[in-house]
Amino acid sequence: MLGRVNHIAIAVPDLGSATTTYRDTLGARVSQAQALPEHGVTVVFVELPNTKVELLEPLGPDSPIAAFLEKNPSGGMHHICYEVDDIIAVRDKLKAVGARVLGDGNPKIGAHGKPVLFLHPKDFNGTLVELEQV
Ligand code: CO
């Protein structure tokens, strides 16, 4: 059911500072910052040979990562994103076994222009899981 890890997301309190860390200290290639108002975040992609890291900074008062940063003021790993072939089929299979899909349960278009869904961390070992149809 699961394909590759598409990205690992890290919530950060200061995107400029996090970008500097990844670009200058760690020597990674990083993208320009991209505001995603529908998701309440501004994101920078760190391009790695085998996957991406997304650095997420809250955008707007209702950002879904604001509460996370209150609990983790210096930032922390926020979610992991797995690729799937058919997001609706996977969603229906997971719902049938009681897994909770966040939001209204319908895929939204994510940061890469593809449909995404989030799964409740309590159903997946304390880790927020994103599914992205590729
Ligand atoms: Co993500």
Description:
It is a single chain. By secondary structure, the protein is an alpha+beta fold. The protein contains 3 helices and 9 strands. It has a single domain, classed as 2,3-Dihydroxybiphenyl 1,2-Dioxygenase, domain 1, CATH 3.10.180. The protein has helices at 15-25, 66-71, 87-96, and strands at 5-11, 29-30, 34-36, 41-47, 52-58, 76-84, 108-109, 115-119, 128-133. It is globular and about 45 Å long. The protein starts with a strand and ends with a strand. The structure holds cobalt (II) ion. Cobalt (II) ion is lined by residues 7, 9, 54, 79, 81, 130.
What are the SSEs and their pairings?
Elements: E1 5-11, H1 15-25, E2 29-30, E3 34-36, E4 41-47, E5 52-58, H2 66-71, E6 76-84, H3 87-96, E7 108-109, E8 115-119, E9 128-133
Parallel strand pairs: 1-5, 6-9
Antiparallel strand pairs: 1-6, 2-4, 3-4, 4-5, 7-8, 8-9
The structure holds cobalt (II) ion.
